[in-house]
Amino acid sequence: MKVSKISIFIHFIRHRFSRYFRSNKISISREKIWNKMLLKSPFYRDKIIKKEHFPLMDKKLFMENFDTINTVGVKKEKALDIAFKSEELRDFSPTIHGISVGLSSGTSGNRGIFLTSKSEKAIWVGAILDRVIGFSIKRRKIALFLRANNNLYEAVQSKLLSFTFFDLKTSVDKNIDSLINLKATILVGQPSVLMEIAKAYKKLKAKVTFKKVISVAEVLEDDQKEFLESVFKCQIDQMYQCTEGFLGYTCRKGKLHLNEDWLKIEKKYIDSKKTRFHPVITDYLRSSQPIVRYELNDILHEGLPCECGSKSTVIKKIEGRSDDVFRFQQNGEEILIYPDFFRRAIISSSDQIVNYCVTLTHEKRISLYLDTLSTKSSRIFESVTSEITKMLLSFGVTDIDIIPNDLEQNQMSKFKRVRNEYSKTI
Fold it and tell me: Residues 299-355: pLDDT tens digits?
């Protein structure tokens, strides 16, 4: 499916205009077009005719009603078949009636299918060029460390912009020589992969040519950001995107903004202090597969207004997924401990920790993986265990065994530092 450069350029200009003049509101014309489009969806047409409220949507309900939600007549069984074959053959070009099909496991581990039309592809590329890659008249080489290549990048290949795809099925060690020789100016990858690249550059004392580094797919944590910036000597930007759409980007001031010029965001608070919320999104640019009041499982913290001029909501932190909140039963009471508390306990234990993974595997057992710079790993493990135990005690949680774990990281999957594998099985 070839997307014209003219179409992409038009959408790039529209996004640039929208960013400055409609950064926190949906235009009336866009809303009218969207309402008319919804009539093509059997699922939503009935609700519009009956004047019913749109239901709160999640991935399970979305997939159950896949056939009637989409507006292009694509059946779930056929879409899944094409998506699985594309993953197996590493060929992501096949379409159904001109509609591209993508497969996402998401950080929650549940399979999702997303559909994209030719016009939606142009809109997406225009948005990425405007808000992630940025405009420049200088020649730039972009290195993409991604699970799957995106044929859309070929549409914007030019003398000023070139893309090189590095498949995550190949280890970072095997890709590193090619990356160094490429002399890329922009590096894109998930934090766990960027960390491996940074460690390799540091070990080899390789010359850093990146002017911009963009973190995608996984949660970028403060210690990772600090380490990456110390090695790459540039700001680490974030692209907040999921199966459900392109949700946010880092502005020139380094703050993560939601794209509220085409997204309506409802905040569903999940704690009594209203510091954490799930975003409930309605996307006014999606037409082949409408996203209406879709509740994401991400835990977001809202930040203060930004000096960049955009009025769109600033996200101070993406804490993770609600699936990975640790849940303990203590004296008949359920105690919830959010991922941030484990992160703070671990990071405050030692400055020698490069990476970690803490997993709830049983109601009374936590496994802990540590990647450290020090040879005294056993001493660091004891220090971390002590801090986690203290933190658990502060919540009234006792008698928890913390055991070491040798983690084998799969680059094809999203890496999570805090995992709840026990509560999902009961």
Answer: 899 999 999 888 899 999 888 777 778 889 888 888 888 787 888 888 878 878 888
Task: Please answer whether residues 153 and 132 qualify as being in contact, where contact means their C-beta atoms are separated by less than 8 angstroms.
Answer: no
pLDDT level of residue 408 (50, 70, 90 thresholds): low
Triad 214, 373, 234: Cα angle to 5° = 25
Sign of the dihedral defined by the CA atoms of residues 127, 133, 139, 140, in that order: negative
Supply φ then ψ for residue 219, to 5 degrees. Answer: -70, 125
Q: Which domains does the chain have, with CATH numbers?
A: 1-322 (3.40.50.12780), 325-425 (3.30.300)
Alpha-carbon gap, residue 326 to 141, rounded angstroms: 42
Instruction: Enumerate residues 6+ apart whose C-beta is below 8 A from 390.
Output: 345
- Give the span between the Cα atoms of 284 and 36, in whole angstroms: 11
DSSP H or E run through 424: none
Could you give the CA distance from residue 193 to residue 171 in angstroms, rounded to a whole number?
A: 10
Residue-wise pLDDT for 385-398, tens only, equals: 999 999 999 988 99
Spatial strand order of the sheet with 418-420 comes to 401-404, 365-372, 353-362, 418-420
Cα separation of 15 and 141, whole Å?
23
Q: Where are the alpha helices (DSSP H) in 70-206?
A: 76-89, 118-128, 172-182, 191-204
pLDDT digit string, tens, across residues 73-122: 999 999 988 888 877 776 667 788 889 888 765 444 456 788 989 899 88
